[in-house]
Amino acid sequence: MKASHIALCTMMVLLIAEVQVSMAVTCSPVQLSPCVSAITTSNPPSSLCCSKIREQKPCLCQYVRNPNLKKFVDSPNARRVASTCGTPFPRC
């Protein structure tokens, strides 16, 4: 009986760990490519763009610190797009 409880607890820990790993975001600025037209023009963001911004939100500060990405990610239009998508831009 005790061994089955230990096995059950071990399985629960493994399942929780797997869920947390699968929920981790891979920071890839390419994921924001559906937002390019909304950021570079005054077009409204698409639903795909908004979902990608929400997905990449934990990475935005990292992108802002990258000199090659900062001019796009930290622009007023990028902030407008994030705001329109209901994803406030983080303070970095």
How is this fold's topology laid out?
Elements: H1 2-23, H2 36-40, H3 47-56, H4 60-65, H5 67-73, H6 76-84
InterPro entries: Bifun_inhib/LTP/seed_sf, Bifunc_inhib/LTP/seed_store, nsLTP2
GO molecular function, one term: lipid binding
Keywords: Lipid-binding, Signal, Transport
Account of the 3D structure:
With 92 residues, this protein is mainly alpha-helical. It has a domain at 24-85: Hydrophobic Seed Protein (Orthogonal Bundle), CATH 1.10.110. Helices cover 64% and strands 0% of the residues. The protein contains six helices and no strands. The protein has helices spanning 2-23, 36-40, 47-56, 60-65, 67-73, 76-84. The chain is globular, with a radius of gyration of 19 Å. The chain starts with a helix and ends in an 8-residue tail after the last helix. It comes from Arachis hypogaea (Peanut).
